[in-house]
Design brief:
Length: 133
């Protein structure tokens, strides 16, 4: 579980880096290095999608971290929590290029798969705490 947590941090950094790189390419390095007192948003298609995909990732990321840590502490003898964590992680990996490419519906389906992964993780914790293997 802890390896997945570390991999998820790498995915978070990738999201932030991609968004920053695309925004800097559009808005310039002086803007990026400056204090950004004047709010500016990139208007380019891919830069905007990268920003929205990053924001979307960060919406569910705290839940993943909390559930992963809870599973690491409580244990996951049946392995369902780990399966749910992998489901979330792989779905989040697949989600990013789908979002950048502007693929509708399938992207939403992949997001739902990630949400199911979180639900499986939560279910594993609940069952573990209830003493149900």
């Amino acid at each position: 579980m802890l390896v997945l947590l570390a991999l998820s941090v790498a995915l978070l950094v990738f999201h932030i880096g991609l968004q920053g790189m695309l925004s800097t390419r559009e808005l310039g390095s002086a803007w990026n290095a400056g204090p950004r007192d004047e709010p500016r948003q990139p208007v380019g298609l891919v830069a905007g999608r990268a920003a929205r995909a990053s924001a979307n990732f960060r919406e569910t990321y705290p839940a993943f971290v909390a559930l992963a840590l809870a599973l690491a502490i409580a244990g996951d003898p049946a392995g369902w929590g780990l399966a749910g964590a992998w489901l979330w992680f792989v779905a989040r990996l697949v989600y990013l290029p789908l979002y950048l490419a502007g693929v509708p519906y399938i992207r939403s389906l992949v997001w739902t798969v990630a949400l199911v992964g979180l639900a499986v993780m939560a279910g594993a914790i609940i069952l573990q705490e209830a003493g149900i293997p």
